Amino acid sequence: MSKSIESAAANGRITLVGAGPGDADLLTLRAIKRLQAADVVLYDDLAGEGFMAYLDPNAEMVAVGKRAGHPSPRQDEVSRLAISYALRGKHVVRLKAGDPTLFARADEELRAAREAGIAVEIVPGITTATAAAATIGASLTKRGVARRVQFVTGHDVDGRLPRDLDLAALADATATTCVYMGKATFPALVAQLIARGLSAATPAVMVESLGSEATNVQRGSVSELAARLTADRPAGPCMILYGAALEEG
């Protein structure tokens, strides 16, 4: 590496910032400070638009969002773009919906930045699961009922239900399970879980388009939600929660 590139790499940096569920009111103070100091913001499709109010007028904004079923840049392209800006001495904010460390491929971006000699920081955000619980006014844990919370993705690289899920753990209704990116595969997941002992009547909640004016909440049992998703899949992104802790009353 030349001295000029070494100098740029030393001065440039990348910050992975969690945007939360898309409502600017839920950005952390540190997230706002990093946005205010950003030269370039590479932002996700689901990060909302409220963050733009905190940017320097001269900051460059680049949309790099990824959403299932829509054309989007490859992960390696996003990483290379962030690194290219940082190597020019820029402070790059990589704004990710939710929390950067949960199903956001932060590991790949961290590795790429470190291999390029770029300083990298993580600013946590409110993950969609806890934001969904707040939206419905529920606790993910409940004394004597649910002592465990588990996060799982319902979407593998091929768009199907991951084949290596711990189905025994996911069939435990005494845990509250939070399914990210699962609206297309939840019916298949429920069928497998019921076969492993999960009651079809286990309480479940689906929150669509969380953090936006289009937020929609649907309640029911796991079997009822699976049937609804089979008949009519929502257009917006969905967070699905299920478990005994979600019993109303």
UniProtKB/TrEMBL annotation:
Domain of life: Bacteria
GO BP field: methylation; siroheme biosynthetic process
Single GO MF descriptor: uroporphyrin-III C-methyltransferase activity
EC number of the protein: 2.1.1.107
Gene3D superfamilies per record: Cobalt-precorrin-4 Transmethylase, Domain 1, Methyltransferase, Cobalt-precorrin-4 Transmethylase, Domain 2
PROSITE patterns in the cross-refs: SUMT_1 (PS00839)
Main enzyme class: transferase
Keyword Transferase carried by entry: yes
InterPro entries: 4pyrrol_Mease (IPR000878), 4pyrrol_Methylase_sf (IPR035996), 4pyrrole_Mease_sub1 (IPR014777), 4pyrrole_Mease_sub2 (IPR014776), CobA/CysG_C (IPR006366), Siro_Cobalamin_biosynth (IPR050161), Uropor_MeTrfase_CS (IPR003043)
Entry keywords, A to Z: Methyltransferase, Porphyrin biosynthesis, S-adenosyl-L-methionine, Transferase
Keyword rRNA-binding: no
Biological pathway: Porphyrin-containing compound metabolism; siroheme biosynthesis; precorrin-2 from uroporphyrinogen III: step 1/1
Database matches in NCBIfam families: cobA_cysG_Cterm, PRK06136.1
Family: Belongs to the precorrin methyltransferase family.
Protein name: uroporphyrinogen-III C-methyltransferase
